[in-house]
Write a structure and sequence with these properties.
Length: 366
Amino acid sequence: MSEPNHQLRCLDCSLKQPPSVSDLHCAKCGGLFTVEYRDAPDGSQPRLPVDDPLTVNSLGEGDTPVVSLERTAESLGLEWLWAKMEFLSPTGSFKDRGSAVLTTMGRDLGVTEFVEDSSGNAGASLSAYAAAAGLKAHVFAPASAASGKLDQIQVYGASLHRIEGPRQAATDAAEEFVAERGLVYMSHNLSPYFSEGMKSVSFELVEVLGDELDHIVLPVGNGSLLIGMVRGYRELKEAGAIDRVPRFHCVQAHAVRPLVAALNGEEWSPEDALPTQASGIATSDPPRLPEMVDAVQATKGSGVTVPEDSLAIWQKRLASTEGIFAELTSAAAFAGLEILIESGTIDRGASVCVPITGSGLKEPLS
Ligand SMILES: Cc1ncc(COP(=O)(O)O)c(C=O)c1O
Ligand SMILES: [Zn+2]
């Protein structure tokens, strides 16, 4: 067998270890891993941890359209507003990019059955990709998740474990189940492989828009899209394909705001979390928080919170003025964009992109 093209490096103590989907924590200090490649990036396509790009477990994810939102731009007084239509992915969210990479790694490293926990979209996505790769998936999700997401997890053949309580309860239950059954915990939030799949979003944006983008505004929970996109832009810059990286602005619900609080030096703890309808970003204790803070700060970005009532307002506004039915979590990014423009963080002459991360079709209307 040929040498793997990467190794895992502990984010805290830099310990290196061979590729693995089951080792989620550093054996020395308990830290999380990042992927470190042998070769430098060449900027033509994102580096991926898989042995052979032709054997990726793919359902046709990626290459989502970039659409100009002229009406919304005009109403916000913005020069350019682009939507990256991630909700057009095979299972209706951007998560498919990460699932393709993570399930390929699992399959190639000999996994046949795995456990995952999710607010809904990642579970649905990993269930579909598990089916395509012939893997058995156990997905732990909040019982309160939208029925469309729970149905989706089941129709792909995964075992759905509905867990009462907040999002964190599903993680705790998954970890217990793993300990009891001795199964592989292929957590998309703890594994460094999932976010590697998100780098392609940045490559696609550069392909369509060059380096004209000034800002990217996105909803952030566990940070896979943020971390992966920033890493994608870094590869492009390191390879000399672009001169500058857009500023990344993270949007969270005011009710659950660990990242925004950390960025703004606000005291906030997971116990302060309140219920929110933005279920995809209702993550009160994200395990990669320091990595998320670094990613935002490296791009001179910012964090902003949005009130609950702005979610449905922006969902309806996007649907009725642009013909785009985004899920509430995704609509939050537009509510955040509006605040960032009002506060002057984003100036009106700027070019902005918002990834529309998930489809409104999975949720009942609020
Ligand atoms: C629609 C949607 N947008 C954004 C996010 C946030 O992604 P991440 O947890 O990678 O920050 C999620 C996560 O579940 C989601 O479902
Ligand atoms: Zn370590």
